[in-house]
Amino acid sequence: MTLIKSISGIRGTIGGQVGDNLTPIDAVKFAAAYGVWLKKQRDKDNHKVVVGRDARISGKMIQNLVMNTLVGLGIDVIDLGLSTTPTVEIAVPMEQADGGIILTASHNPKQWNALKLLNAKGEFLDAVEGAKILDIAESDNMSFADVDSLGKIKKNKAYFDLHIIEVLDLPLVSVKAIESCGFKVVVDGVNSTGGIAIPLLLERLGVDVVKLYCEPNGEFPHNPEPLKEHLTDLSDAVKKHNADFGIVVDPDVDRLAFMDENGDMFGEEYTLVACADYVLSKNPGRNTVSNMSSTRALRDVTEKHGGTYEASAVGEVNVVNLMKKNNVAIGGEGNGGIIYPDSHYGRDALVGVALFLSLLADKKMSVSALRKTYPNYFMSKKKIQLTPELDVDGILKTMETRYQNEQLTTIDGVKIDFSESWVHLRKSNTEPIIRIYTEAKSQEEADSLADKFIEEIDAIAKA
Question: Which domain holds residue 144?
Answer without folding.
Answer: 3-157
